[in-house]
Amino acid sequence: MAEAISYEEQRRRQVEQNKQKLEELRLHHLSAAVREATTKPSPTKKRKTRASRDVAGDVPPRRSGRLASLPEQPKYRDEFHDFEKKIRRSYGKRRDLSNRVYATDEERAYAMDAAQELEEKIGSDHPIFIKPMLQSHVTGGFWLGLPTHFSRKYLPKRDETIVLVDEVDDEFDTLYLANKKGLSGGWRAFSIAHKLVDGDCLVFQLIRRTKFKVYIIRASSYHESDN
């Protein structure tokens, strides 16, 4: 019995000592502070939220005295968007394909035969080639690729202006791109001015180093011929 009482007394003393150590270390106060910190919002986060609201509002950004005396910088982003809209509008107008004309196989064959006959009549005093018109030549892109062998043999080795002379001697300046071997700027104006459509055939006669005489054979002439 005495041993049991001694054991209980020893355990009670050990508990008292542990409580005393906890009081000394103030661990319970520390744990309470941790719990309180986790339940309350951070003051730093509040300040950041208010700052972000101020930036998003109509309040102008603060500028230093040195920068405040300088003129406002242009809004390049707005200018770019305006420019992009203009390009889209003009590009959309240029690519209005609602009035496209699609040639039949008979119309294409007729125009090609007529162009070959004209080529024989013109003779071989000047280099000649025939170019049937496709949609990419007369609508949308307005790019005219020239025969590679002809370009390598007769045309300039660098970009130059090439003049197109129609059957009434009106002249149109076009930009010849030597690397791509085709006509770029100016070809669109020529195509529109002469109302070229899919299936037409053009006979190009090189009368000078950078000048073509151009003859147009209309695919629609098929319906005017005696077939």
UniProtKB/TrEMBL annotation:
Name the source's superkingdom.
Eukaryota
The segment(s) forming the TF-B3 domain are: 129-220
Q: Annotated region Disordered: where?
A: 30-72
Q: Which organism is it from?
A: Zizania palustris (Northern wild rice)
- What SMART domains does the annotation carry? B3 (SM01019)
Q: What is this protein called?
A: TF-B3 domain-containing protein
Q: Name one GO molecular function term.
A: DNA binding
